[in-house]
Structure formats: C-alpha cells, structure tokens
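Appendix C. Worked example: FAD-binding FR-type domain-containing protein
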Amino acid sequence: MGFLKDAAAVFKKKELIFKERRQISGDVYTFSFEKPEGVSWQAGQHGLFTITHRKVKPPTKPFTISSSPREDVIEVTTRIDDRPSDYKQALLELEPGMEMTMSGPAGSFHTDGGERTVFIAGGIGITPFHAMLSELADADIRVETPPVLLYVDGEGKFTYSGELSDISDRGIAEVRFIESSEGLHKELELLEGADVEKYLIAGPYSMVESVSKHLTGTGVPKKNIRKETFIGY
Ligand SMILES: Cc1cc2nc3c(=O)[nH]c(=O)nc-3n(C[C@H](O)[C@H](O)[C@H](O)COP(=O)(O)OP(=O)(O)OC[C@H]3O[C@@H](n4cnc5c(N)ncnc54)[C@H](O)[C@@H]3O)c2cc1C
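Step 2, the predicted output written as structure tokens:
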C-alpha cells in the first residue's frame, strides 16, 4: 500500500508556472518554471511535461530536468530547429505566468554516489549530466576520483560549453569535448583499467546502443552500464 501511495504521489500532475525562456546556444533553448513546493528529485531524472494552453498532439513528452535539484527552478532544455513539431511550437508560445503540468520526476538514471563514474553524452543527451554536474558545482563537491564526462557532438556544437569548462577547471569533473566516435573510443580506451564502476550513457537511440555495445565488447559488464535513450531524435 505504501509503495502504491508513493507511486501515486510521484505521478500526480503538478502545475508548473512558466518563468522564462533562454536561448543557450544555437538552436538549444532552456524553459524555466517555478519549482512547486514539496517537489524534489535526483539529478538525472525526468518528468512527463504536458502542454495545457491549447490542443497539441501529442500533448505530453518526457524531458530530463536539466537544472540542479538545489535550484529553485525546474528547467527543460531542448533543441528546436526551424521546423519545430507542434509540441515545441507550443513551448515557444509560453509567456511568463502561463502553466504546463508535469508528472514525476521519475526514472533510475542517476548516480548512487561514492563510485567512479563515466558519463557519456551524445548531443542533447547532455541534459541529465548538466543536472548532475551543476549539483556538484553548486555544493562545491570535489571527490578524489572525479566523474569523467565524455561529451560527443559530431557538429562540435557543445551546449553549456563555458559552464562545463569551468566545472572541469575547478576539478569537479574531468570534461572532454569529442567530435567523432573514433575520438570517443580512444578516450574510453584510456579509461580501461581505471576502475570505473558505472558508465552512464544518454542521447539518441543509435548513439546509446552503439556506445553500450562498444563497452560490453571491451569487457564492461552490462550491470555497470546505465542508459537513457532520448526517443524522438
Ligand atoms: C527519458 C527521456 C528524457 C528525455 N529528455 C530530453 C531532453 O532533456 N531534451 C530533449 O530535447 N529531448 C529529450 N527527450 C526526447 C523528447 O521527449 C522528444 O522526443 C524530443 O525532444 C523530440 O521532440 P519533437 O517534438 O521535436 O519530436 P517529433 O514530434 O518526433 O519531431 C521530430 C522532428 O520532426 C520534425 N517535425 C515534427 N513535426 C513536424 C511537422 N508538423 N512539420 C514538419 N516537421 C515536423 C521536426 O523537425 C522535429 O524536430 C527525452 C526522452 C526521454 C524518453
């Protein structure tokens, strides 16, 4: 009963009040909402966000919460090109004070702490890692073996590049910007034998699956790999 009650609380829809939109790089936008009272989450989790100001098909899509749980906002960061879907067009119409709803946050894509972790992001798959690293940066947490972020983007369009470089300079994480899968494989080779306990991979399906296959091919046990597939890319 307790579990069912908890699950019901997580999936109850929360009203989110829109604050602002920021174009953070190229075609990448962050949508910021006030954090409703009593909502908490683990960095890396996602919510189901529903457009309510007009009819949209489908009205609900999953998005990682890209802000740190220590902040007073719930943020969604997404790529919107010049032919946005109906859903993303509706996101662009939001004005301060308008509402959306969110179910969750939910999901098991987060770190358990205390383990050597390698984060592998493909494109917009950077969002969960941005939440995780911002949380460490906000609290100024430096560990002996910092997490390693391998951030791959074939076009070299690295969202949050300034912020991530700063996090790397402060010794909170080791961040590498990579532009090809060969480059990624080289970086992964360098980490072999580094006693990595968990690999977390986020991004489009083909990228997540190919990196996961590469890792298992080099002997990494499946149980040490966590995946978040951004369906829709
Ligand atoms: C757990 C999870 C977490 C996720 N987190 C994120 C995240 O943090 N950030 C993120 O960006 N995504 C995230 N996603 C993916 C997200 O849910 C969407 O699927 C994704 O952003 C694509 O949305 P879309 O509306 O552009 O998709 P679609 O509707 O599938 O559109 C895809 C593309 O098709 C074209 N298109 C669509 N409709 C039209 C039309 N009517 N006319 C012309 N062209 C059209 C557009 O170019 C559009 O970009 C996540 C997914 C999961 C499962």
